[in-house]
Design brief:
This protein is an alpha+beta fold. It has a single domain, classed as Outer membrane efflux proteins (OEP), CATH 1.20.1600.10. It contains nine helices and six strands; from the N terminus they run αβααββααβααββαα. The protein has helices at residues 2-13, 26-36, 38-53, 113-179, 185-219, 242-252, 254-274, 322-388, 394-429; strands spanning 22-24, 64-81, 87-109, 228-230, 280-294, 301-314. The strands form two sheets. A four-stranded antiparallel sheet has the order 2-3-5-6, with no helix packed on it. A two-stranded parallel sheet has the order 1-4. Strand 2 (64-81) and strand 3 form a beta hairpin. Helix 1 runs antiparallel to helix 4, helix 4 runs antiparallel to helix 9 and helix 7 (254-274) packs antiparallel against helix 8 (322-388). The longest helix is centred in the middle third of the chain and has 67 residues, at 113-179. The protein is elongated. The protein starts with a helix and ends in a 5-residue tail after the last helix. Mean pLDDT is 88; it is low at 4-19. Its main location: membrane. Belongs to the outer membrane factor (OMF) (TC 1.B.17) family. InterPro entries: OMP_efflux, TolC-like.
Length: 434
């Protein structure tokens, strides 16, 4: 009996199994994902594009400078009749012209539309930053969720390893009792069947863990064959407060920030449309050189160089009421953006309230299942001692053994669900810590 109690302490109360792979912490997993994940890298590139587009030149605020070169040559048989009746003819008459120079054009006023466009480009850059933030939050949430799912399944696998060890001890005890005539052969066979069942369950559970690790490696965008082990403890933040969550969500939730930004973009679109009501003023200038040669004509050679400059102004007087139509549509888009803000705020608040209620329930279940696991451990210890001295049957011991494994499974599941509820809430408020 002393040997049985010592064995129980080893397999039940000490950590399950030795690990040979490298430890991967949840913080390291998130850092690898932030570095490698393809969705995050694509969002970063989208943000870089938005930054490159946010320039004065792209908004039309800077002048354009163009260099021009044009040369034309011709060889023709020419015949001319002048006003005084004189006729002139020349075969293979050559005509050459050369023009080159630099010109500049600059829109100095377009009804303030250029300023609206520049501000819109800046807002689009902010939009890219918020979309990157949302992608980062989503990816971090996925990594943490998958990581702690592996923790749950790995802990269950370790429990099954202990369960197999207990079943092997049961088989050894049954064989000893059979050898001294205190048990029938049927009992030994039943225990052997139970052991085989435990080994089969362990194989299926090991496959589940391997597949989950492959999924996590894929999410981290690294070699799928990398093996690792995870932390066996799940730390749950039990200090979340509903009112504080709502306040932080109103300030940091990326979806709310994106909707508010969309309204600002709609306002800038209206500002840009209204700019068409005002005149557009464009100045131009340049320095040009021209030269021409003609074998037949009044001027044999000509050269010219110098400055050119001018001002162009245009005003839309009537365009079939399109200006008024475009302004009305822009105002409707602003109203829609305001409605979307209220709609998104309600959706976020609803999601937080639902997730918070689930969080509270899972926290209570986690505490309950932790107590149940302790009770199941004690029950297994007492049952093993009784089975060793033959005071209970193998069936009764098997019930206690299964109750113990089920208690561990429920406890792991409850802790995982509590952690996932916590992660979901922090993702909704836009602030995930790990």
């Amino acid at each position: 009996m002393k040997r049985a109690i010592t064995f129980l302490f080893i397999v039940v109360f000490l950590p399950f199994g030795a690990q040979s792979q490298e430890l991967l912490t949840v913080k390291e997993a998130v850092e690898i994902a932030l570095e490698n994940n393809y969705s995050i890298r694509l969002s970063k590139n989208d943000l870089l594009v938005a930054k490159e587009n946010s320039t004065y030149g792209n908004a039309g605020m800077l002048p354009s400078v163009t260099a021009n070169l044009n040369q034309n040559n011709s060889v023709q048989n020419s015949h001319q009749v002048q006003n005084n009746g004189e006729q002139r003819s020349l075969d293979n008459a050559k005509n050459n012209s050369l023009n080159y120079g630099v010109s500049i054009g600059w829109t100095v006023f377009d009804g303030m539309g250029m300023f609206a466009r520049y501000e819109r480009l800046q807002e689009l850059e902010k939009q890219g930053g918020l979309q990157l933030k949302r992608m980062v939050l989503t990816t971090i949430g996925d990594v943490i969720t998958l990581y702690y799912t592996i923790v749950e399944q790995q802990n269950l696998l370790s429990a099954l390893d202990s369960n197999i060890a207990i079943s092997r001890e049961r088989l050894r005890t049954a064989e000893n009792r059979f050898s001294i005539g205190k048990a029938a052969r049927l009992e030994v066979l039943n225990v052997q069947v139970n052991l085989n069942e435990d080994i089969s369950g362990r194989l299926r559970q090991a496959e589940t863990v391997r597949n989950l690790k492959t999924e996590l490696n894929s999410l981290l965008a690294r070699n799928l064959d990398i093996d690792f082990y995870v932390e066996d403890d799940v730390h749950i933040d039990d200090g979340l407060i509903y009112a504080d969550l709502l306040d932080r969500a109103s300030r940091f939730n990326p979806d709310l920030q994106l909707i508010a930004l969309n309204k600002r973009l709609a306002e800038l679109d209206l500002k840009n449309v209204r700019a068409s009501r005002y005149p557009t003023v464009r100045v131009s200038g340049g320095y040009n050189f021209s030269r021409s040669e003609s074998s037949l004509g009044f001027v044999a050679h000509s050269n010219a160089r110098g400055l050119t400059y001018g001002v162009t102004a245009s005003l839309n007087i009537f365009d079939g009421f399109n200006q008024r139509r475009n302004e009305r549509i822009a105002k409707i888009q602003i109203d829609n953006a305001s409605l979307q803000i209220e709609q998104q705020r309600l959706l976020v608040e609803t999601a937080i309230k639902t997730a918070y209620e689930t969080y509270l329930t899972n926290m209570e279940l986690s505490k309950l299942e932790e107590r149940n696991e302790d009770i199941a451990r004690q029950n297994l210890e007492i049952t093993l001692a009784k089975y060793t001295i033959g005071s209970i049957s193998s069936v009764e011991f098997r019930d206690a053994q299964e109750n113990f494994i089920n208690a561990i499974s429920r406890n792991n599941s409850a802790r995982l669900q509590a952690k996932l509820s916590e992660v979901q809430l922090k993702e909704l408020i836009g602030q995930i810590d790990f």
